[in-house]
Design a protein that fits this description.
- The chain is about 65% helix and about 0% strand.
- The protein is mainly α and about 160 residues long.
- It is elongated and about 55 Å long.
């Protein structure tokens, strides 16, 4: 779906409502991807060593729990977007290069390799699908950010310096 430029006009309430419905749709898709692929016990164990703020996952959970947008929720949504972006960046930087080892399916670390064949197959499947799911989460986060910036533009702070 193409992002349309939203402007304040006499029909802004209609445009605003349509924009908010799109934001809620995207949040719903983020919720599906996040809860099905990232908000899991196995994932929490793997990301335990990542340099993350302790509020990252709770902020993301707050974002994906939104079902209606009330005045003031813009800050909550922006905070969730920021934490999602940070999580995605940390995963790409620190986890993806060593994902095979972290899942215990790398022959380079035989003493940590999983022995159960069923677990090995499941983890191998996770290894192949994880980058796709991460990219999907990144794309949805970017789309949500674009809609938020279009519907609720951030006020730019004017810093004037006087000599």
């Amino acid at each position: 779906m193409q992002l349309k430029k939203l402007t304040r006009s006499k029909d802004f309430n209609f445009t605003s409502r349509v924009g908010e419905e799109e934001i809620l749709r995207i949040i719903g898709e983020i919720k599906e991807v996040f809860e099905n692929h990232f908000d899991r016990t196995w994932f929490a164990i793997i990301i335990d060593d990542l340099p993350m703020d302790s509020r990252t996952l709770p902020e993301i959970r707050n974002l994906v729990s939104i079902t209606t947008i009330h005045p003031g929720d813009e800050k909550l949504i922006r905070s969730g977007i920021q934490e999602l972006e940070q999580l995605i960046l940390n995963i790409k930087r620190y986890l993806l290069p060593v994902l095979k080892e972290a899942l215990g399916i790398s022959a380079f670390v035989p003493h940590k390799m999983v022995r159960d064949k069923t677990q090995y197959i499941i983890r191998k499947f996770v290894l192949f699908t994880f980058p796709f799911n991460l990219e999907r989460l990144a794309m949805l986060t970017s789309e949500l950010k674009r809609y938020m910036n279009a519907l609720y533009p951030e006020e730019k702070k004017n810093h004037r310096y006087y000599a």
